[in-house]
Amino acid sequence: MDKSWMKKQRGSMEYIEGVLKFVEFASEHASDGKIFCPCTKCVNLCLVPPGVAREHLWRKGMLQSYTHWKWHGESADVPTATECGSSHVQESLQQYGDFHGMLHDLCPTHEMPPEPMEEGERVQQPAEAQPTDDAQKFYNMIDDVDKPLYAGCTKFSIFSAIVVLFQLKTLCGWTNKLFTMLLQVLMDMLPSDAKLPKDHYEAKKIVRDLGLGYEKIHACPNDCMLFWKENVNLEACPCCKVSRWKTNEASVTGNNASSSKGKKKAAKILRWFPLKPRLQRLFLSPDLASSMKWHVNGRTDDGVMRHPADSDAWKMFDSTHEEFSSDPRNVRLGLAADGFNPFGILSTTHSTWPVMLVPYNLPPWLCMKRSSLILSLVIPSPKSPGIAIDVYLQPLVEELRELWDVGVEAYDASSKNVFQLRAALMWTVHDFPAYADVSGWSTKGKYACPCCALETDSRYLKNGHKFCYMGHRQWLGRDHEFREEDTLFDGSTDMRVAPMPQVTASIIVDTESLVGRCLGKKCQEKYKKRKRGEANQCVWKKRSIFFNLPYWEDHKLRHNLDVMHIEKNVMDNILGTVLNLKDWTKDNYKARLNLADMGIRSELHLRRKGDDKYTMPPACFHMSALEKDGFLQVLRDVRVPDGYASNISRRVNLKEPKISGLKSHDNHI
């Protein structure tokens, strides 16, 4: 379609006829009889009748940068003659992204009343409505998109320059100080009329109107409570009586009376990233909104496990909550939390806990990408919250409950309609220590297995001063050959049936006495620890806060173990034992004593050599020095496709000999 009329003067015959042809073309792809108005005022943000769009274009002109009519049904496959001959300016702008399109995706479409027409015009319109604060912020960003960075600049606008710089900051890990220094250098390099912000703070204020910010919530230094909602004005924790503010040592000693006049700083701050606007934004891009329905519309249901939607837990949830599952746009979420040290080797005790959410509606190649993960909470450091993580999960759980009971209004850009978006948390994913913190079941000691619970088959090793768990054969088939073996295992056969997982009713009963108990560190010290060997003890430390969700009791699977953590730990122990690495091997002096106490593997028992000396007979898996060299040489010379694993040759040390620093994917080799 010819678009040369867009450059013509308004009021000319060519321009008037071009508008008529455009409106006729756009009307063929109208949604409920309305189209986006591409005039310089509406900039494709308002749905209006075709006649109103025609009048707007005649009066205010066509948006000059809108050369590809993607919001009006034009296919992106075949470029028009005007687009093929577009200027270098347009090509340069597209190099860094379509910022008009990005802003359009970020803003939900509202059916705003059209503006009144001038005297003599054919369509009479109601009085003009004033834009809301959010709309006005959006119009300001539109203006920044159209304004060049400096006079004569053809590649960047004010808005695009700041967004590109922030993108580089994120990708390259720049600090705020480095970002400010770069802005100051650019201001000296660019012409004097360049409109760049002077520092990181000013730049952040400009892009803040894009939304997706976070809230700061003060927390008790001992993890007892949040200073939130009705407790927001408290000065100290009512449980442990500790102040919410950092202590100023100078004011305490009285050496500096004016030091207490400064602004108070909270001792601990939880950063909460509200979930609702982030879920709404998933549906503002037409492509992403279509992908959010993939688990129903695009998945192949042939019984093969490719996606969580193929699992029994997902299907059981669907059958229990048919109303929720009837709309494929309702979001299924998974929660993952673990501690990490943001300072690397500079601090060995620091532990910050991010809480991430994964939208499982997306296909496998999208849902685990970094861009799809949703940061929900950043739990403050320097120590792990332990079972008090429930204190910090309160804002998220409350929001999840609202998203289940009521939902939130969202705009679906793929179907161009507004719907009530709901969400449900399907399960959590952790390593084994974090499993205990979130679920409330102690994963240490005699009853460490959360599936077997009080039927856990454990044995205390008095020489190693730890428990071992050897009842794995219960899950084998009844006629499996290992069930009849005794010498290869613990010296006895095992024909038992696998224990049944705990039912929800028993969990509720067992944790009834723990409801309302303070989870703070100081308060936990008051409760007596369980004595070893005590009968009929409760291994629960708390009732998980997720039981406040109405559907949590109906889940078949509530908590998952992170396979990558387990895989790495198992492989490190196997390699350490096979290579007989000091402090890593499990075949040590104490292990041989435990074999003798259990009365198994007599060929591996310690042998006396002299009065006070014993020797360890070599096991079948022990390697000679020559065999170790050959094994490590093979690993050093292995070659794999790019991206399959890290450079394993760098992890191999032939002199010592040992291998260390392997990542989870390296263990597949």
Q: What does it look like?
A:
The strands form 6 sheets. Strands 4-3-5-8-7-6-11-14 form an 8-stranded mixed beta sheet. A two-stranded antiparallel sheet has the order 1-2. The chain starts with 12 loop residues before the first helix and ends in a 10-residue tail after the last strand. It is elongated, with a radius of gyration of 32 Å. It folds into 5 domains: 1-131, no CATH class; 147-211, no CATH class; 269-434, no CATH class; 441-543, no CATH class; 564-668, no CATH class. Helix 1 (13-27) runs antiparallel to helix 2 (50-60). With 669 residues, the protein is an alpha+beta fold. The model is unreliable at 76-94, 108-132 and 250-260 (pLDDT under 50). It has 24 helices and 18 strands.
Read across the widest sheet, the strand sequence of neighbours is 4-3-5-8-7-6-11-14
- Counting DSSP H or I runs of 4 or more residues, the number of helices is 24
What is the total tally of β strands?
18
Sheet bearing the most strands, described? Answer: 8 strands, mixed
What fraction of residues sit in β-strands?
5-15%
Helix content: 25-40%
State the end-to-end CA separation: 56 Å
Alpha-beta content class: alpha+beta
Mean pLDDT: 83
Q: Outline, from the CA principal axes? A: elongated
